[in-house]
Automatic annotation (TrEMBL):
Highest taxon of the lineage: Eukaryota
Keywords: Aminotransferase, Pyridoxal phosphate, Transferase
Cofactors, names only: pyridoxal 5'-phosphate
UniProt family annotation: Belongs to the class-I pyridoxal-phosphate-dependent aminotransferase family.
One CC-aspect GO term: cytosol
Domain (Aminotransferase class I/classII large) ranges: 59-432
Keyword Transferase: yes
GO biological process: aspartate biosynthetic process
Protein name: Aspartate aminotransferase
Enzyme class, broadest EC rank: transferase
Note from the entry: In eukaryotes there are cytoplasmic, mitochondrial and chloroplastic isozymes.
Length: 442
C-alpha cells in the first residue's frame, strides 16, 4: 500500500469491491483475484533444491543450499547431537509442555555465553537479553520487527545490507516495511572485500542508520573483513551513530574455532556499542530442520542499562507471543544439553573442526584441480582465500546455467557454491565442468 498512488489505491478498492460482488453473485469462486494475489516466483534456493532432487542423473552434484554434507554427499548428524538426543530420550521427566515465551532459559543463557563470551562486560553488567527464536531467520525477523516498531528514526531511512547478502535478508526486512539500501562488499575484480567502498558508503549513510553485518563466514561470498578492518568499520559506525545488527549463522564454521568466529561481535561489545545479534544453530549443530536460534539485544553501559534491557525484553516478549507464542523445544534442548556440559561441549568443538576441516580440504582440492586444468597458477586463489560454507566462484549466470545443463552441477545463479557439497568423489568432476564452461564462455 505504501508504494501506490491514491488513484491506484482507489482502482484497487473498486476492483476488490467488484470481486466481492462477483463472488457473492456466485459467478466467481474467489475474491483473491490475480491482481490482488499475483503468482509469486518460487524461492530460488528451495527451487534449486527441488530441481536437484528431481534430476535422476547419476553424477549430479548439489552445491546449492548451505547445509553440511559428509564425504559421501550425505547429511551428517553430528555424533554429539546423537548423544544429546539419547540423553533427552532417556530423561523420564521430559514432557511436551510449552516453553516460556522467551524460550528455554538454559539454552538462551548458554547461547548468549557462546556468542558474547563468558566474561563479556554485557553479561557481567546484565545489559543483554536473549530470546529463543525460529533459528537464524526467526532471529533476524524478530530483530527487524522490533526495530521497525521502536527504532527512533525517520521511516524513510534505509537499513544497509552488504552487496551481495543472503537473499532472505531482503524479504525479511521488507516484510516489516524497513527500506533497504546496500553498501559495496564484494569486489568482482579482486574477488575479495571492497573495503574502501564498504567504508565510504557506511560513512556517508544518514546518521543513525541500521547496518547489517555478517559476523563471520559471509554468505554468499565467503569473504570476511580482517580484524584490523573490523576495527575501522567499528570506528566509522561509532562516528556516524549507526546501529549494528549482526547476523551470525556460521559460528565455528569460518575458522573451526568458536571464539575466533565471534571476535567481531565481541569487539563491538567491548567498544560499548548498543547492538543486536541474530544467532543460528542450524549449521554449527546440523540442526537445520529443528529451527534452533536466538536473538540477543545488548544495550550500552550505564546506570540505567538494566532498566533499558528490561523494557526491551518486555516488548520482545510481546512480539514473540503474538507471532509464535513460544518457540519449539526440541532443537533448543539438544543444543542446550551440549552447550551446558563441558565434555559434550568439547566433543562438539571436535565435530565442528571435522566439518570446517573437510571444507578447507575441499577448497584446496577444487583450486588445485581448476589450476591444473587451465595451467594458470593462482587463477583460482580466491577459492582458498574465502572461508566458511560458501565460495563465490565468479561464475556468471550464463556459466551457472551451462554447468547445470551439461554437468548437472547445481549452484545459485550468482555463482555461489556450498563447499560442503564437494567431496573426494566429485571434486574433479565439478572442476572439469567449471573449467569447461569458463573456457567456452570466455
Ligand atoms: C543458504 O544460504 O543456503 C542457507 O542459509 C539456507 C537458507 O535458508 O537460505
Amino acid at each position: 500500500m505504501r508504494n501506490s498512488s491514491p488513484t491506484q489505491e482507489a482502482t484497487k478498492s473498486l476492483s476488490r469491491l467488484s470481486n466481492i460482488k462477483g463472488h457473492m453473485e456466485g459467478n466467481n469462486p474467489t475474491v483473491f483475484h490475480a491482481d490482488i494475489v499475483p503468482q509469486a516466483p518460487e524461492d530460488p534456493l528451495f527451487g534449486l533444491m527441488a530441481a536437484y532432487r528431481k534430476d535422476d542423473f547419476e553424477k549430479k552434484v548439489d552445491l546449492g543450499i548451505g547445509a553440511y554434507r559428509d564425504n559421501n554427499a550425505k547429511p551428517w548428524v553430528l555424533p554429539v547431537v546423537k548423544k544429546a538426543d539419547e540423553i533427552l530420550r532417556r530423561d523420564p521427566n521430559l514432557n511436551h509442555e510449552y516453553l516460556p515465551i522467551a524460550g528455554l532459559p538454559d539454552f538462551t543463557n548458554a547461547a548468549q555465553k557462546l556468542i558474547l563470551g563468558a566474561d563479556s562486560p554485557a553479561r557481567q553488567e546484565q545489559r543483554a537479553v536473549s530470546i529463543q527464536t525460529i533459528s537464524g531467520t526467526g532471529a533476524v525477523h524478530l530483530g527487524a520487527l522490533f526495530l521497525s516498531r521502536f527504532y527512533p528514526r525517520p521511516t524513510s531511512q534505509p537499513v544497509y545490507f552488504s552487496s551481495p547478502t543472503w537473499a532472505n535478508h531482503n524479504q525479511v526486512f521488507s516484510n516489516v516495511h524497513l527500506p533497504i539500501k546496500t553498501y559495496p562488499y564484494f569486489s568482482p575484480s579482486t574477488k575479495g572485500l571492497d573495503f574502501t567502498g564498504m567504508l565510504s558508503t557506511i560513512e556517508s549513510a544518514p546518521e543513525g542508520s541500521i547496518i547489517l553485518l555478517h559476523a563471520c563466514a559471509h554468505n554468499p561470498t565467503g569473504v570476511d573483513p580482517t580484524r584490523d578492518q573490523w576495527k575501522q568499520i567499528a570506528k566509522v559506525i561509532r562516528a556516524r551513530n549507526h546501529f549494528p545488527f549482526f547476523d551470525c549463522a556460521y559460528q565455528g564454521f569460518a575458522s573451526g574455532d568458536l571464539e575466533n568466529d565471534a571476535w567481531a561481535i565481541r569487539y563491538f561489545v567491548s567498544q560499548g556499542f548498543e547492538l543486536c545479534i541474530a544467532q543460528s544453530f542450524a549449521k554449527n549443530f546440523g540442526l537445520y530442520g529443528e529451527r534452533a536460534g536466538a536473538f540477543h539485544f545488548v544495550t550500552g553501559s550505564g546506570p540505567d542499562a538494566q532498566n533499558t534491557i528490561a523494557r526491551i525484553s518486555s516488548q520482545l516478549a510481546i512480539l514473540q507471543r503474538s507471532e509464535i507464542s513460544n518457540p519449539p523445544a526440541y532443537g533448543a534442548r539438544i543444543a542446550s544439553t551440549v552447550l551446558n556440559d563441558p565434555i559434550l561441549f568439547a566433543e562438539w568443538e571436535e565435530n565442528l573442526r571435522t566439518m570446517a576441516g573437510r571444507i578447507i580440504d575441499m577448497r584446496k582440492a577444487l583450486r588445485a584441480k581448476l589450476e591444473e586444468l587451465n595451467g594458470k597458477e593462482g587463477s583460482w586463489k580466491h577459492i582458498t582465500d574465502q572461508i566458511g560454507m560458501f565460495s563465490f566462484t565468479g561464475l556468471t549466470e550464463k556459466q551457472v546455467l551451462k554447468i547445470r545443463e551439461e554437468f548437472h552441477v547445481y549452484m545459485t545463479k550468482n555463482g555461489r557454491i556450498s563447499m560442503a557439497g564437494l567431496n573426494t568423489g566429485n571434486v574433479e568432476y565439478v572442476a572439469k565442468g567449471m573449467d569447461k564452461v569458463v573456457k567456452e564462455t570466455e
